[in-house]
Amino acid sequence: MNIHSSAKIYGSSTVGTNSVLLEDVKIGYPENGILTGILESGKEIEEADFQGCEIGPGAFIRPNSTVFSNVKIGSNFRTGHNCMIRENTTIGDNVLIGTNVIIDGNVTIGNNVSIQGNVYIPTHVTIEDNVFIGPCAVLANDKYPIRKEYRPEGPVIRRGASIGANATILPGVEIGEGAFVAGGALVTKDVPPWKLAVGCPAKIHELPEEMHSLNRI
Q1: Phi and psi torsions of 34, nearest 5°
Q2: Which of 43, 65, 128, 207 could bridge across to 196 with cysteines, CB 3.0–4.6 Å?
Q3: Stretch (H or E) spanning 36
Q4: Terminal CA-to-CA distance of the chain, rounded, Å?
Q5: Main-chain phi, psi angles of 45, to 5 degrees
Q6: 142-155: per-residue pLDDT in tens?
Q7: pTM of the full structure
């Protein structure tokens, strides 16, 4: 295992064999409730005993990335620079999280998933296997931000779906298996399996026959 001298591993965190942690990576950083308790006790974070995170073998985590406590990640995990993965998130095997991605916690991500740079993923999102999310896409989980009570409900991205660059997926929307969301689309309603969503707001079209195959990630 190759761990840069500036990287920090907090709590009971574990990192699998053949992993690389580069400059200023933080593994198992305490979520808010744990952090508050540590500070109130007068301890340093490095001295505190708490549940960290679990990362499988073969990880390659680039500089300034932070993985919070209570996160479980499978094997062959890769990141770009400066990404953040918050608490209560589960990530499968062979997943790429690109530069500046924010995963805001309480998220489930499957196997063989590629999430490109500057993507925002809020709480209460499910992303199944073989999903591709293009750069600068935004998923939302609140229909009425700070205006009225609403239980957060993020999108569900089914197996093998693709989300194009700069697309926006609104709360509670389901992107069906193998569906394709075009770049820049604003998706306000469910997209059926193996269909194409294009436009603002998005309209549903037939997916070309040559695109009827799962993503090869």
Answers
A1: -70, -45
A2: 207
A3: helix 32-41
A4: 25
A5: -55, -40
A6: 988 888 887 889 99
A7: 0.95
How are strands ordered across the β-sheet holding 114-115? 2-3, 20-21, 60-61, 78-79, 96-97, 114-115, 132-133, 162-163, 180-181, 195-199, 202-206
Q: Token match 């744990």: residue?
A: 34
- Tell me the Cα Rg of the chain: 18
Q: Which residues contact 60 (CB under 8 A, 6 or more apart)?
A: 19, 20, 77, 78, 79
**DSSP state, 191?**
B
In the numeric block, which tokens belong to residue 24? 């200023």
Task: Give dist(CA 52, CA 71) in Å, integer.
Answer: 8
The kind and range of the H/E element at 84 are strand 84-85
Q: 47 in the Ramachandran plot: left (φ > 0), alpha (ψ -120 to 50) or beta?
A: alpha
What values do phi and psi take at 153, rounded to 5? -145, 100
Q: How confident is the model at residue 4 (pLDDT cuts 50, 70, 90)?
A: very high
Phi–psi pair at 160, nearest 5 degrees: 75, 10
- Reply yes or no: is the peptide bond before residue 155 cis, omega within 30 of 0: no
Per-residue pLDDT for 70 more than 90?
Answer: yes
Q: Tell how strand 71-73 and strand 54-55 pair up.
A: parallel
